[in-house]
Amino acid sequence: MLEENRKQLFEFLGRVTQGLAEAVGKNCGLVLHDFSDPEKSIVCIANGNITGRKVGDTLDALGFQLLRQPPKADLLNYQTTTKSGKVLRSSSIFLRNEKGEIVGSICVNYDVTGVARLQEWLQETIGPVEPGPREEFEHSVDEVLDRLVQDAVHGTGKNIADLRRNDKIAIIAHLESKGAFLIRYSVDRIAESLNISKYTIYNYLAEIKQSSTAVRESRTATEESLP
């Protein structure tokens, strides 16, 4: 996608974002993301009070995971909860280039906190809300990394001081799968959080890549040997 075309596209979508917000009302927040700079991805936001974010804020943890593992389709009608406890009905519509690569998204976050307490009304009026991924709508990449590291460490069931080598490799593998290393200077930040050197992280990443390659080659060899 040419830079001029990209600029025109996002200018147009910015107007669409603001226009839709006027149409649907103050309880619906709309966010336009440009994935070319994921650490400052929000280029337009309407009714930002819904999630507390603003233009220039980062992708949240789910966004970085989607960059690392792009979905095949849009994510529609899933439930999220903000840090302040608001219950949202959310959808993410992805913008793709001619190669099918995701270049941005329009995210719709409808505040259903009030009606969520009226289950019967919710079901009859806006339909069932499908369970979805947990989002906390981080404001900065530091918050995103803190969230990802906390989740990864929590998954081991141990405190950072008690982590063994295999635990740390598992944490690094988890962070890599969630797109944490797409963030600039993430190696330094993660190394500091885990009390290890950045060179140790590079070594772990090399081990993880080598192990993944070996697994794929073994699987391929097994499939080829089958009659």
Characterize the structure shown.
With 227 residues, the protein is of the alpha+beta class. The chain folds into two domains: 3-138, GAF domain (Beta-Lactamase, 2-Layer Sandwich); 143-225. Helices cover 47% and strands 17% of the residues. It has eight helices and five strands. The protein has helices spanning 3-24, 61-68, 113-116, 119-125, 141-156, 165-177, 186-194, 198-225; strands at 28-34, 42-46, 75-81, 87-96, 102-111. A five-stranded antiparallel sheet has the order 2-1-5-4-3. It is globular and about 55 Å long.
Write out key terms for the chains shown.
alpha+beta; 8 helices; globular; 2 domains; single chain; 5-stranded antiparallel beta sheet; 227 residues; Beta-Lactamase
Summary of the model, kept short:
With 227 residues, the chain is α+β, with helices and mostly antiparallel strands. The chain contains 8 helices and 5 strands.
CATH-defined architecture of the largest domain: 2-Layer Sandwich
Strand-pairing-aware structural class: alpha+beta
The counted number of beta strands is 5
State the strand order across the main sheet: 2-1-5-4-3
The termini sit apart by 45 Å
Q: Which of globular, elongated, flat, extended, rod-shaped describes the shape?
A: globular
The structural domain count equals 2
Helix and strand sequence? HEEHEEEHHHHHH
